[in-house]
């Protein structure tokens, strides 16, 4: 009996993909749309967006999660389409079960 072993790398990729598929739940569209948008003011305790690692500029529009962490609107929206949690504190967005 011959058995073909997959390489170490292939195994690692497969395992991480499988692990991601188990845990990743995108946020619902209505939860994303309900996020508060506001203008960024200098002096705010958060100085930058952890998704793209860019700094916020005074007066720019940012989006605030229910956990009060703030991100660029585009950044957090694309993040939430992949993962239903805050990139900083892993706060879980409320799931809107009526949409599923
Ligand atoms: Zn960003
Ligand atoms: Zn958070």
TrEMBL record:
Signal peptide feature range: none
SUPFAM superfamilies, per database record: RING/U-box (SSF57850)
A Gene Ontology molecular function term of the record: ubiquitin protein ligase activity
Family annotation (PROSITE patterns): ZF_RING_2 (PS50089)
Keyword Membrane recorded: no
Pfam families: zf-RING_2
Gene Ontology annotations of biological process type: protein ubiquitination
Reaction catalysis annotation: S-ubiquitinyl-[E2 ubiquitin-conjugating enzyme]-L-cysteine + [acceptor protein]-L-lysine = [E2 ubiquitin-conjugating enzyme]-L-cysteine + N(6)-ubiquitinyl-[acceptor protein]-L-lysine
InterPro entries (alphabetical): Znf_RING (IPR001841), Znf_RING/FYVE/PHD (IPR013083)
Highest rank taxon of the organism: Eukaryota
Keyword Zinc-finger: yes
Keywords: Metal-binding, Transferase, Ubl conjugation pathway, Zinc, Zinc-finger
Domain RING-type: 49-90
Enzyme class: transferase
Gene Ontology CC: cytoplasm
EC number from the UniProt entry: 2.3.2.27
Name of this protein: RING-type E3 ubiquitin transferase
Organism (species): Kingdonia uniflora
């Amino acid at each position: 009996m011959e058995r073909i072993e997959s390489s170490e790398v292939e195994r690692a990729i497969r395992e991480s993909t499988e692990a991601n598929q188990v845990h990743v739940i995108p946020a619902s569209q209505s939860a994303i749309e309900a996020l508060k948008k506001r203008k960024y003011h200098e002096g705010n305790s958060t100085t930058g967006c952890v998704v793209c690692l860019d700094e916020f500029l005074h007066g720019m529009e940012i989006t605030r999660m229910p956990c009060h962490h703030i991100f660029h609107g585009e950044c957090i929206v694309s993040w939430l389409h992949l993962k239903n949690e805050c990139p900083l504190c892993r706060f879980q967005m409320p799931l809107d079960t009526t949409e599923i």
